[in-house]
């Protein structure tokens, strides 16, 4: 069963999931996405939600819909790089905000990340 965060619209969560699959190379540029009906079944959502997802992804330039053929991931590398950079920024922003909410100062955040990446024992 697919779990969704109640704090964020489902269609945006589906966009995030597909974007991550594209970034990881699980879905390749030029690949055809499942039909609206198939994606709705896979995602356990209403087809209208998937339609909105695909429309928003098309607006973002991430996919293109070809009449009678389906919806395809863009082959425009500039768009794909921008999507990756934007996703990276979102992840970093959530992390930094979470650390700041804990009262951790910026230089300590940087130190903790460096130690974590080095595999040091200063992980807590």
TrEMBL record:
Domain of life where this protein originates: Bacteria
UniProt protein name: GntR family transcriptional regulator
Ranges where the HTH gntR-type domain occurs: 8-76
Keyword check for Transcription: yes
Organism: Sutcliffiella cohnii
Keywords recorded for this protein, A-Z: DNA-binding, Transcription, Transcription regulation
Pfam name, any one: GntR
GO MF term list: DNA binding; DNA-binding transcription factor activity
């Amino acid at each position: 069963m697919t779990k969704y965060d109640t704090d964020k619209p489902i269609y945006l969560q589906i966009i995030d999931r597909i974007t991550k699959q594209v970034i990881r190379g699980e879905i390749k540029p030029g690949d055809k996405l499942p039909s609206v009906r198939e994606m709705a079944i896979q995602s356990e959502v209403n087809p209208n939600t998937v339609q909105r997802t695909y429309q928003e992804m098309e607006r973002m330039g991430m996919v293109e819909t070809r009449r009678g053929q389906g919806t395809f991931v863009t082959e425009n590398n500039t768009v794909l790089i921008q999507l990756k950079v934007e996703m990276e920024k979102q992840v970093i922003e959530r992390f930094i905000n979470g650390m700041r909410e804990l009262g951790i100062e910026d230089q300590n955040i940087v130190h903790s990340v460096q130690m974590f990446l080095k595999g040091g024992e200063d992980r807590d």
